[in-house]
Amino acid sequence: MTTLILYHDDCMQHDPGMNHPEQPARLTSVVEALKGMVNTECLPAPKATREQIIRAHDTDYWQWVLDSEPAEGQAPLDPDTFLSPGSVDATLRASGAACFAVEQIMEGKAQNAFCATRPPGHHAETSRAMGFCLTNHIAVAAHHALSTQAVDRVAILDFDVHHGNGTQEIFYTNSNVMYVSSHQMPLYPGTGRADETGCGNIVNLPLPTGAGSRRFRAAWSGSGLPAVTEFKPDLILVSAGFDAHNDDPLAQLTLLEPDFAWITKEIGTLAATLCRGRVVSVLEGGYHLDALASSARTHVEALTGCP
């Protein structure tokens, strides 16, 4: 079976402003890098429904986002997070892509999927926009899987260089969802200590500034992946951020493309054993355009080779 790639032009319309790191060019670079890949099928991302969004986010919060979108220019939601004309449609496409990918994978129409979308999502909390994120796509997709599919347990694996505080907050007391994150610490947003364990469903793998391949792989091999094996999920979701790359300007880890290939293959092997290979990956961070493009391609190449 193929690897699905979900994308929509609406994701280019979100414009947080000149010189903001989360630029439309990020997605352009990824989409260009993924062109012509074998064993893939590209489909348009649908919009998430209101029902899908409010499973993960407070109704009042979502209405505030809708009401805050400006007719022109940018409107700040927090010091780093802005709305522009088209931002709502962009984040709805990104959350919708993740939900649609879950449906396609659970119905056996593809082996796995990658959502080439923006803005990112894993910092968005139940009722708070932050860290460039408006809706938490991976959380929306997990709730969608638990609510509408034959899924009882979802594992979310996050290798973005920043801790996914939003994902952790949304599922902190939900024993049906495991969240495992490797991230640089100290670094924004300041969460993700190893002693933040939720109801036993949170596994944080903080990495020191300058950490590279050896520490990254040891953390996942020693703690992260075994925890997922013990959890026995029916579906694995991936927050695929590529800002842990050595060239990324917003952090100081030193991973390279082979490290992203390695973690993707490890996730694929685990999924083949635990949940029939069911993996849905969603683009998160990555702010050096060339490194982002090459890392995303490496990630999708590894997905296409997963059992």
Walk me through this protein's architecture.
This protein has a single domain (3-304), classed as Arginase, Chain A. It contains nine helices and ten strands. The protein has helices spanning 24-34, 50-56, 59-68, 87-106, 137-148, 165-171, 213-231, 257-274, 289-304; strands spanning 3-7, 40-44, 75-78, 81-83, 112-115, 154-158, 177-184, 202-207, 235-240, 279-283. The strands form two sheets. The chain has an eight-stranded parallel beta sheet with strand order 2-1-5-10-9-6-7-8, sandwiched between helices. Strands 3-4 form a two-stranded antiparallel sheet. Helix 8 links the parallel strand 9 (235-240) and strand 10. Helix 7 (213-231) packs parallel to helix 8 (257-274). The longest helix is centred in the N-terminal third of the chain and has 20 residues, at 87-106. The model has no long low-confidence stretch (mean pLDDT 98).
Which of globular, elongated, flat, extended, rod-shaped describes the shape? Answer: globular
Number of helices: 9
Q: Please mark out the parts with pLDDT under 50 across 5 or more consecutive residues, or reply none.
A: none
The run of helices and strands is EHEHHEEHEHEHEEHEHEH
How many DSSP-defined strands?
10
Alpha-beta classification: alpha/beta
Give the tally of structural domains: 1
By CATH, the superfamily comes out as Histone deacetylase domain
Fraction in beta strands: 15-25%
> CATH top level?
Alpha Beta
Looking at the structure, the CATH topology is Arginase, Chain A
Helix proportion range: 25-40%
